[in-house]
Amino acid sequence: MTEGLCLSPGSPIGKSTMRSPEAPRTDLSSQAEIDALQRENAVLRAEVTQLRSSLRMRAATIFAEAASSPRALISAPGRLWSLGREILNARAWRRVILGLECGLPDDALRHTAPGPGSASTVKTLGRHILSGTDLPRPALHVTDPALIEAISRTDELTRLVRDGPDWPTPAAQAAGPVSSRRVLMALHTGQPDQTNGYARRSHEILTALSALGWEAQGALRSPANDTGIPETLTNLYHRIGPVIPETNGLDAYVAAYADRLFEDIQRTRPALVHAASNHVTGRAAALAARRAGLPFIYEVRGLWEVTRQSVEPLYAGALGYRAQRRMEIETAKAADRLFVNGEAIADLFRDAGIPSERIVQVPNGVAPDQAPDPAAASALKARWGLDDRPVIGFAGSITSYEGLEDLFAACASLKHVPFQLLIIGDGPDMPALQNEAKRLGLDGQICWTGRVTPEDARTAYAFIDIAPLVRKDSPVTRLVPPLKPLDVMAGKAALIVSDLPPLKEFAADGRGVIVPPGSPTALAAALQGLLQDEASRTAMTQAAFAWIHKTRTWPEIAARIAGVYSDLLPRLPPA
């Protein structure tokens, strides 16, 4: 005999009414029982919806009363704590319902924070509903359109995790004549819109391929304010308007995106389609390429679900994480070749079943003429008010995984060694880091520039003496190699890196110093040694500069890419 849950629409949380144990449930599979449970679930949904609004109102009331009454101010923390528990409870109930509606009992019953009644009532409700039927019941939630949308989205992700995407049979041959050296590169973003590392890599590859005689064009989606007319932006980019709606789910979005790309293929007649992260762009490009009968290359520059996990650790177990990982793997399997940026990413896809012979390393690079400009560097150093002391510098996004608190702790322990700190950039952890600098007594030795242009950030390495890139040990820092080490080496700054797979290659063979991640003591020793030995710094930076210009220039990397293009294209008819 199992107790059920019965709530009245107006009953506040914590005041649920349990059915009497004297009323036994003898046939949980009967239609009457299912109908009763459905009605109970509908009531629960209505109550959670009402609760969310009332919680907001109650929070506002607590703050208003605290501002006008000393007694209310004293009691406010306790009242807010109780309110916070109720908010968490309501969220837990929402997860339960989402999980149950989309056929994910394990996900649903895992979220058993106390809700109306107790944790056991969550399990009880779940078991009753699951024993009644496995079919989704969106009609129960007409009082909460947002939840209906969430259920639909979760149901789609569940299907993608379970079954993967649908792939059409490739066309037997290209649909019409093609230009034998023309490539369509589908991109998430490009330099007309962004100046981040992704956009910079895209631009450098397109530029270097063009210099090798390839007609490489980046295809960008249209922004929300676009006219919807396909538009050539520069000789390297064009848009594939009109705007794609985002309201009908992932599969519908990808299908519409693939239609835009196929129309673009018909207009521009490339011989090959090359798409870069993430799976949304990759899957749309794969569908368009198959429909057109063209070879397809997928370039994985990072795994975005892992990046999100770095700031939301619990996301690793989420349905969205699992769906993104499945889509990345399936898109890679659909590709004729898989380009990866780093051995760690290559290992992940090998483990997922991608044959090694289809995986090609395409690392980051530098421009062949990328070198310090003394005049520009001197002007920038003066503008930022830096003096003649050695500069320890960092340029990038100020986030937790960059390990800047370890850098500050190491610098605070340096004794009798003159130096100044330069922090270039901005990010979510900047206020906390500034407070930490004050606590350590470093605020008088730090120059904070805030956000600067990419050109200024690269120029700064010409007067930065030591550039520590001491990332924390996390899934994303073990997987994705950044562009920054190459900029450091091109600027002839001495490099210190964490002992992590994507970083330590840069510092090998005397090109830098490797320290354990999360060790301010080891970092302080490395800093002290380099600050006191200018000759070692010079030898290190010269070795690093020579290495990148021999092995990591964009023309050299573009030649690797062009070699793969040529391998795939002989089976196509000439234009």
Protein traits:
575 residues; alpha/beta; Rossmann fold; 3 domains; 8-stranded mixed beta sheet; 3-stranded parallel beta sheet; 20 helices; 16 strands; disordered N terminus
Write the layout of secondary structure elements.
Layout: E1 5-6, E2 17-18, H1 31-68, H2 70-101, H3 105-110, H4 119-132, H5 145-163, E3 182-186, H6 197-211, E4 215-220, E5 231-232, E6 237-239, H7 250-268, E7 272-276, H8 279-292, E8 296-300, H9 304-311, H10 319-334, E9 337-340, H11 343-351, E10 359-361, H12 374-383, E11 391-395, H13 404-413, E12 420-424, H14 430-439, E13 446-450, H15 454-460, E14 466-469, H16 484-490, E15 494-498, H17 501-507, E16 513-515, H18 520-532, H19 534-551, H20 554-568
**Structural class category:** alpha/beta
Strand content: 5-15%
- Distance between the terminal alpha carbons, to the nearest Å? 75 Å
CATH topology of the largest domain: Rossmann fold
Helix content: 40-55%
Rg, Cα atoms, Å: 29 Å
Side-by-side strand order of the widest sheet? 5-6-4-3-7-8-9-10
Q: Output the CATH homologous superfamily of the largest domain.
A: Glycogen Phosphorylase B
Biggest sheet overview: 8 strands, mixed
β-strand number: 16
**Which regions have little confidence, pLDDT < 50, spanning 5+ residues?**
1-29, 100-143
What's the tally of helices? 20
C-alpha geometry: globular
Structural domains: how many: 3
Per CATH, the architecture of the largest domain is 3-Layer(aba) Sandwich
Summarize model confidence as the mean pLDDT: 79
Text of the CATH class of the largest domain: Alpha Beta
